[in-house]
Specification:
Length: about 280
């Protein structure tokens, strides 16, 4: 799989979402603009944009590629193995000698630390997962498809790891602080695996954490939603967001990322790679 890019922010994808999910190349156009182009001022809340049917699924897939491209462009995620000097500029490769099924982080770098609120109401620091392999995903509980699919895959990966699953921390970071209270997140995660930790925070806190991982998110309103702020406050909305899963090793280093298409066994494989490196 290759992802073409010329900068940090992927804003349009010329393949259909279904084609990308089948593993075809996602051709992205980069212009450095902020997410939610054409968005409106919503009084300091998450930027919002209205899109027609079908855009939601495509945006989620493009967001996955954008997060990886963002890290790669700033010295983060590459396509595994040694960096190729003969590859075209702006191409992510996955060499056959990579130990990972996902995109390998080259060079390795410390994972961004943060403090947010866990679903049990207690403070949660990412550094508290040191000693375990850690999987991080940004999503929201009202997500209709990508988030439950991703969480199901991560739960299946934990199950596939057997006893090693207890050496793994899975962290679900909400991008919807208005609706995702700690109680709502806890109820949502009960459907997947009790070992998964859900965290939330204020919008500025979540935006800062997301940016540190190269993740973008914004509100998406249905077409036809009135422009008036009062109408927006009462309107139903969804969240467009990057759908990348990040793998952090036992000493807090970014090691790999996953974007569709991938299987639970791919995640379990890469977790085993970093667990095997851990000092007993």
């Amino acid at each position: 799989m290759r992802v073409f890019a010329a900068g940090r922010t992927a804003v349009r994808c010329y393949n259909s979402a279904s084609a990308i999910l089948q593993g075809e190349t996602c051709m992205t156009e980069i212009d450095g603009s902020e997410p939610g182009r054409g968005s409106r001022d919503t009084g300091g809340s998450t930027p919002a944009v209205r899109r027609g049917p079908g855009f939601w699924a495509s945006m989620l897939v493009v967001g996955s590629a954008a997060a990886v491209v963002s890290f790669w462009a700033s010295g983060g995620f590459e396509g595994g193995g040694a960096a190729r000097t003969d590859a075209p500029a702006g191409v992510l490769e996955m060499p056959s000698d990579s130990p990972f099924k996902g995109f390998a982080a080259i060079p390795e770098r410390p994972a961004p630390d943060f403090t947010l609120t866990a679903h049990d109401g207690t403070p949660f620091e990412l550094r508290s997962t040191r000693g375990k392999a850690t999987l991080v995903f940004f999503g929201f509980t009202h997500c209709p498809d990508v988030c439950p699919t991703t969480m199901s895959k991560l739960a299946a990966a934990l199950a596939a790891l057997g006893e090693d699953g207890d050496r793994v921390a899975v962290v679900f970071i909400s991008v919807d602080p208005e609706r995702d209270t700690p109680e709502a997140i806890q109820a949502y995660l009960e459907a997947f695996d009790p070992r998964i930790v859900g965290v939330t925070g204020t919008l500025p806190e979540l935006e800062a954490v997301a940016a540190s991982f190269g993740v973008r998110f914004f509100k998406e309103y249905p077409q036809g939603t009135p422009e008036d702020p009062a109408d927006l406050a009462a309107a139903d909305y969804s969240m467009a967001h990057s759908a990348t899963v990040f793998l952090i090793d036992t000493v807090g280093q970014m090691r790999a990322s996953f974007l569709e298409p991938y299987a639970p066994d791919d995640v379990a494989h890469d977790v085993r790679v970093v667990l095997a490196e851990a000092v007993p």
